[in-house]
Amino acid sequence: MRALTKSFYRLIRDTKAATVIEYGLICALIVLAIMGALVSVGTVTTDMWNNVSNKVQTAS
Fold it and tell me: What residue ranges are annotated as transmembrane (predicted)?
């Protein structure tokens, strides 16, 4: 546990850690954008299949 804490403090003091954090934030924003796009596509797809289902039910 002590080694983990020591390496964590060393990571915080390292200037490369700021770059890693920035890349992590960029990745998080990309993931959020992908999730938003998938939700949008999912909603459109669900609406499309509900429309198909309604048309099939009214045709029979």
Answer: 20-41
